[in-house]
Structure formats: structure tokens, C-alpha cells
Write a structure and sequence with these properties.
Elements lengths: L6 E7 L3 H15 L8 E9 L2 H5 L10 H25 L5 E7 L2 H12 L3 E5 L5 H7 L2 H8 L3 E5 L7
Protein name: UspA domain-containing protein
InterPro entries: Rossmann-like_a/b/a_fold (IPR014729), Universal_stress_UspA (IPR006015), UspA (IPR006016)
Pfam family, one: Usp
């Protein structure tokens, strides 16, 4: 059990392989062999997209699909949370909190850092190219510039063909 002096680590997760890898890597490197006295209090955060934000891009007539989009986002969030719990359990990490918060991942993760007074934020890297990153915006890049703590970006090793 983490003590009162234990620092907090926030790990941002989504439904990507990069996110899964980042969580596994973090558990292997920071929590392995420390099940009795973990180095950090672990808070895992999933930012669930807001259906209205997505539908806002779709235009008129989109209101009818709002409940379906919301339902899909809830199903994805449940799957992401379940997978995170399974990963933690498989690594013998049982002392953690999982939060699902609706909104933009960039803001949600920075707010989670503030809320939990985290000393480190861990995010995966999607490895977008310059154009896609310019259009979509990089969560890791945003957090690196705006989170009030150390930000660790975990990148998957490139697979050799």
C-alpha cells in the first residue's frame, strides 16, 4: 500500500496499442518487484471523447446518432478500463485507481496531474507524422508543454521488417 509520502504517477490510456505498451512498460520498469511498497501511487486515466464534440463535426441531422455514439464511447471506455485492470493484475499490481473522464485527452490528463498532485505523467506515443500531428494535435506534445510535472513519453520500439 502506498504511504502518504508516496508520490503519484498518472498514466494516460486509450484504446491504442501504444497506450497498452506504455502501461505495460511503466509497470515493468517502475512497479515490478515492488508489490509490497510501490514507488508511486498509480492513477490510470482514460479520457473518453465527448459525443457532442465529435458530432459537432458532422453537421445537421447528427443529433439522432448522438445516443449511439455515446453508447459506443462508453463501450470503448469499459473495454479500455478492463484491459488496464487485466494488465495490472497480470503484473501483480493491485493498488491503483482507474478514472474515466469525458473530454479532450490533453486537458483531462493535465487536470488529472493537478487533481492528484502527480509528480510524473506517463503517456504513449502514437508516432504520427508531421501532417497528422498538425491536424489532430499530439496529446503527448501538449502534455509535455502544459502538465505541471515530469512527462514521460513511452515509445514502442520500431519493428524490423
Amino acid at each position: 500500500m502506498a504511504t502518504a509520502e508516496t508520490q503519484t504517477m498518472v498514466v494516460g490510456i486509450d484504446d491504442s496499442e501504444q497506450s497498452t505498451y506504455a502501461l505495460q512498460w511503466t509497470l515493468d520498469h517502475f512497479f515490478a518487484n515492488s508489490t509490497v511498497n510501490p514507488p508511486f501511487k498509480l492513477v490510470i486515466v482514460h479520457a473518453r471523447p465527448s459525443p457532442s464534440a465529435v458530432i459537432g463535426l458532422a453537421g445537421p441531422g447528427a443529433v439522432e446518432v448522438l445516443p449511439h455514439v455515446d453508447s459506443d464511447f462508453k463501450k470503448i471506455a469499459a473495454r479500455v478500463v478492463e484491459e488496464a485492470k487485466e494488465i495490472c493484475s497480470s503484473k501483480s499490481v493491485h493498488d491503483f485507481v482507474v478514472e474515466v473522464v469525458e473530454g479532450d485527452a490533453r486537458n483531462i490528463l493535465c487536470e488529472a496531474v493537478e487533481k492528484h498532485h502527480a509528480s510524473i505523467l506517463v503517456v504513449g506515443s502514437h508516432g504520427y507524422g508531421a501532417i497528422k500531428r498538425a491536424v489532430l494535435g499530439s496529446v503527448s506534445d501538449y502534455c509535455a508543454h502544459h502538465a505541471h510535472c515530469t512527462v514521460m513519453i513511452v515509445k514502442r520500439p520500431k519493428t524490423k521488417h
